[in-house]
UniProtKB/TrEMBL annotation:
This is UPF0056 membrane protein. The keyword Transmembrane applies. It holds the Pfam family MarC. Its main location: membrane. Belongs to the UPF0056 (MarC) family. The lineage of its organism: Bacteria, Pseudomonadati, Pseudomonadota, Gammaproteobacteria, Enterobacterales. Keywords: Cell membrane, Membrane, Transmembrane, Transmembrane helix. The chain crosses the membrane at residues 7-27, 39-58, 70-89, 104-125, 137-160, 172-189. The keyword Methyltransferase does not apply.
Length: 195
């Protein structure tokens, strides 16, 4: 149960629904509220399919590349650390979609929700918990449901916290992610020395 909880929290932090709120709202601002909900649900379903694909094929990819668990754990920790740094110290980024066109697949499903960091993490988790795939699927579905709820209630969250509050929450999530990334890195080094 503890593993499911920690994995779910990790996946939510990487999906970063609160951090993605302003981007989603900016990209979808020219659509009416009903169409916004349809686009969010469609993009989240596409992202879920991609994430499940990487979760189940990830182990095979690692074995084809002859990667050890320790190597993947160390590199995963480094990647998560860099993501967390960007969450704490955000930079201006363009979303790559003109305001008049409806997004499809890019950039909402990929890379905002199912980004490289999340897909790499799913590959790592599928390698670590090879015999507990049901736990991983459960964690992924919980994290996905949480993310889609936050995104569907974007207007409510922005009114509740305000843009400064959302930014502060994203930085807090970044700090937690730094701790998780450091732990993953240290676990990888410990396992490497034991091997």
């Amino acid at each position: 149960m503890t593993e499911i909880t920690s994995t779910t929290i990790l996946l939510i932090l990487i999906m970063d629904p609160l951090g993605n709120l302003p981007v989603f709202m900016t990209i979808l601002k020219n659509l009416n509220a009903k169409r916004q909900r349809i686009v969010v649900i469609r993009e989240m379903i596409i992202a879920l399919i991609i994430m499940l694909l990487f979760l189940f094929v990830g182990e095979k990819i690692l074995s084809v590349l002859s990667l050890k668990t320790e190597t993947v754990s160390i590199s995963g920790g480094i990647i998560l650390f860099l993501i967390a740094i960007k969450m704490i110290f955000p930079t201006e980024n363009s979303n790559g979609v003109s305001s008049n066109e409806e997004p499809f697949l890019v950039p909402l499903a990929i890379p905002l929700v199912a980004g490289p960091s999340l897909l790499a993490t799913l590959m790592l988790l599928s390698h670590q918990y090879l015999h507990h795939m049901s736990y991983l699927v459960g964690s992924l579905l919980i994290a996905w449901c949480f993310t889609i709820i936050v995104l569907l209630l974007s207007g409510f969250f922005l009114k509740l916290f305000g843009s400064k509050g959302v930014n502060a929450l994203e930085r807090l999530m970044g700090l937690i992610l730094i701790m998780l990334a450091t732990q993953m890195f240290l676990d990888g080094i410990r396992d490497w020395f034991r091997a």
